[in-house]
C-alpha cells in the first residue's frame, strides 16, 4: 500500500469509530494518517453559528478535538488534518485521490437497506481509486475478535480478485493475522457446459474439487509472496454473499472486490459488496480493480 490512510470524519459516533480504526491501522502499517472533514456553509444554521466564519471555526474545533484524542492514543503517529469546503462526496474523493485507503463511518444496520451508508459513503465506495473501509460504531473494532482472521472473497481467475487478495494479505501481514480465502460456487445450468469444461471437471473429479483446485491455483503466488501469513482455503456451495456472511462472525475485516456499474438510478457496486456492507458484523473493505 502506498499513500496515507485517509479517514473522513463528520463528528458522528460512526466517523469517530472509523477514525480510531484508521489510526490503529496506520500504526500497524507504519503509515501516515490524514484526517479529512468536508463541510458546506449552512445559511440557516443556529444563530450562534449563522455566519461562515463561525461555522468554519466550529467545524475546525470539532475536528481538532477528535485529532487530539488520536494523538494522545498514538503519540508516534504522523497525523495531518484538512478541513475542506465543497460538495461532500466529490471533495472527499478528490482528497483521497492519493490515499492508500479511505476509511469511513457507516450508520450500520437499519430497515432501509439502500440508505445505510449515506449518499457520500455510497459514492465514495463506488468511485474511489483506493480501497474504502466501512466501519460502524458497533463493529468489532477492538481487532481482538476470536479467530484473528481477515476474510476475503475470491471468484473467477487469478486477475479477477488480485486487488482484493493483495489488500487482504497486506492487512493480515500487518496484523499478524491469517487469511481465510472464500470461494463460493453454485451449480451452472446444463447449457453452460461445453466439451472442454466437461473434460476439466472430469479431470478434477467433480465440481467441488475443481473449485478447490481453482482457488489453490489463485492463492499460490500470494502464499509465496506472504509466507508468514497462514491461509485457510474455504470452498463452499452457495451464493457468495451467503457464504461470506456465514464466516464474517470470526473476521477482523471482510474484504471484497468492487464490481461498480452505473444504472438508470445511479451507481451500484455489485450485489456481494452491497450485501457485506449492510449485513456483515465487522468492518468491510471494498477494493477497486487494479
TrEMBL record:
<dbReference type="Pfam" id="PF00582">
    <property type="entry name" value="Usp"/>
</dbReference>
<feature type="domain" description="UspA">
    <location>
        <begin position="1"/>
        <end position="136"/>
    </location>
</feature>
<feature type="domain" description="UspA">
    <location>
        <begin position="152"/>
        <end position="288"/>
    </location>
</feature>
<dbReference type="InterPro" id="IPR014729">
    <property type="entry name" value="Rossmann-like_a/b/a_fold"/>
</dbReference>
<dbReference type="InterPro" id="IPR006015">
    <property type="entry name" value="Universal_stress_UspA"/>
</dbReference>
<comment type="similarity">
    <text>Belongs to the universal stress protein A family.</text>
</comment>
<protein>
    <submittedName>
        <fullName>Universal stress protein</fullName>
    </submittedName>
</protein>
<dbReference type="InterPro" id="IPR006016">
    <property type="entry name" value="UspA"/>
</dbReference>
